[in-house]
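In this section we walk through a basic example: taking a raw amino acid sequence and producing a predicted 3D structure, encoded as discrete structure tokens. The instruction is simple. Fold the sequence below.
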Amino acid sequence: MGIAGKLKIKSFCLNPFRENCYILSDDDGSCVIVDPGCYTPSELRSLKEYISQNELTPTAIWLTHGHFDHLFGAAGLSRDYSVPVWMSPEDKTLVERDGEFAIGVGLNPPDVSFSTRDLSDGQILRLAQDDNDVILNGSEESLTFQVIATPGHTQGCVCFYSEDLKILLTGDTLFAGAIGRTDLFGGDYDKEIVSIMDKLMGLPGDVEVLPGHGPATTIAEERTGNPFLRPWGGVDDEII
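The resulting token sequence is shown next.
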């Protein structure tokens, strides 16, 4: 993918679930890795080669939620680059069970030995690294993203939103023409609909949505065309 303002976005389609991992980097070479679902050695190698070839310095790993297909590579990358893994504490129980869930669909269990730092609704994250940490409270000199808690697909689902760059990383909360399934451990359909309608659909229509699976879309496209978000008793019902 290209450049939005100072932000460069590289996407990788990973593992048998075709999960979207994103590397977000700025002009100074600082980068964060969002949802590193690297399952095979070649997938992990491709991601690390991109980082090396572009002389990037990873500062953190951000997880939109705790499903195994989004974090296969988190432990190894956290160790290799000595960076923290940020995740909602609401998904810690889910991560503890990721091994059995992965085995249940015929995949090897992920390494979940990484420690996490807690994400919370409204928190501000930045790409650049300061003298002490990668953390919070971004400054004018650094690209920043706001954490938006969107429970539903899992209890700890979050999105990452840049108001300035009009970029929204939605994980498995919102897709092009679909929403995340809620029949898995920790899923709640009612919560997901409330999360999407109350927290995402009110964003500007030209915000680009980068989901955890499938193609990019926009808030406007999903607001008007996503069949899962059509209100009951709408125009079609009246016509019928």
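Looking at the output, two observations stand out. The two ends are 43 Å apart (CA to CA). The CA atoms of residues 47 and 79 lie 15 Å apart. In the next section we compare this with other chains.
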